Amino acid sequence: MTDFQAEKDLVRAYYAALDAAPPQATAEVLERFCAPDLLWRGFHPFNEQHGPESVAAQFWTPLKESLTSMQRRLDMFFAGRNEIDGFQSVWVASMGHLMGLFDRPWLGIRPTRRIAMLRYAAFHRIEGGRITETAMFFDIPHLMMQAGQNPFPPQTGAHLVQPGPMTHDALLFGVTDPEDGKRTLRAINAMLGDISRWTGGSIDGLVAELRRSWNEDMIWWGPAGIGATYTIPRYAEQHSGPFRLAFRDRRFNGHLCRMAEGSVGGFFGWPNLTLTHRGGFMGLPGTDTPADMRVIDMYRRDGDKLTENWVFIDLLHWAAMQGLDVLGRMDRLAVAG
Description:
This protein has 337 residues and is α+β, with helices and mostly antiparallel strands. It is 31% helix and 34% strand. The protein folds into two domains: 5-146, Nuclear Transport Factor 2, Chain: A; 178-326, Roll (Nuclear Transport Factor 2, Chain: A), CATH 3.10.450.50. It has helices at 5-20, 26-33, 52-66, 140-146, 178-196, 206-213, 232-246, 315-320, 326-336, and strands at 34-42, 48-50, 67-81, 90-102, 115-127, 130-138, 214-221, 228-230, 247-252, 257-261, 264-268, 273-277, 291-293, 295-302, 305-313. α1 packs antiparallel against α2. The longest helix is centred in the middle third of the chain and has 19 residues, at 178-196.
């Protein structure tokens, strides 16, 4: 067992230095806190980056040049051992928003000169006092919507700047009771077990299934393009049911990290799922092309069941695998306009 204080302190110091650094100094910060062979996984179009210099040049420097006076607004921070490798590796996870003034274009998205928030979640693997691996997933379509460039048809859920846990108790900077984390991980695994037994083609019994692992007042904070939904019946109506009916040939590829601490936990995969779209999901036409979904899920448990879920899906990558270049289309529309 470990109290994870050294790992938490490392990531907090990394965040403080990175957030305070001017754009051109981000490489020095990453080199100070990350291993030379850092593996960084981010959403399309960044994908996998290798080494601190590449991560800084491709992601952090351009982002900080665009989203000026950036500050990190943390909603969740926790650590734990990774169930996927037999609880051997230690990871630190966080979730929140990177907020700044959207002063310059980023990825072809028009600046607004107003406050903008890039919602994100990140997992950092810690070894030998360095960050050796990072998965940082961020909702680019959400930023596009804030800039008035909605890339998708109307969504089934509500489009919101998403708050953190209702209880405001997910910044776990100190030591927690390990039994609480075990309860949370059991709740997450029970929910995943229910999903794994679904074979497709029907949503009969969906609400009854959800009630086994979710509290009645659950909130599903989905990504832009899908949206947020509240209560089990509305979640079944506005996301879970339509999602299950829209896909076939669903293959679960596994997670790279799954862990929990206190009443919160989460996981990520690369990719989590490979599915073939029948049509109708997010108002888009179906294809015969299997496509990947890279996902981070963050959870809050209340009692023995889950009650809040924040979801990050790389919808730009999923669309690109089916021939739809969302960012390229925005560029072309901007030129045409």
